[in-house]
Amino acid sequence: MPYNDYFECGTCGKGFPNGWRARENHCWSVGHCLPNFECDTCHRGFNTQNACIQHMGAMNHFAHECSVCGETWPTEEECIDHEADEHYYCASCDRWFQNANNVKMHRRSRAHLGQPLDCPFCQDPFTTATGVVHHLESGRCPRARGLSRDAIYKFVRARDPNGVVTKKLVGWEGSYEYEANENCWNGYCYECYICHREFKTLDSLNQHLKSPTHQQALYHCPNPNCRLDFKVLAGLFNHLDSESCGMMRFEQVQKEFVNIVSGARRIAF
Question: Where is the C2H2-type domain positioned along the sequence (predicted)?
Answer without folding.
Answer: 88-117, 190-214
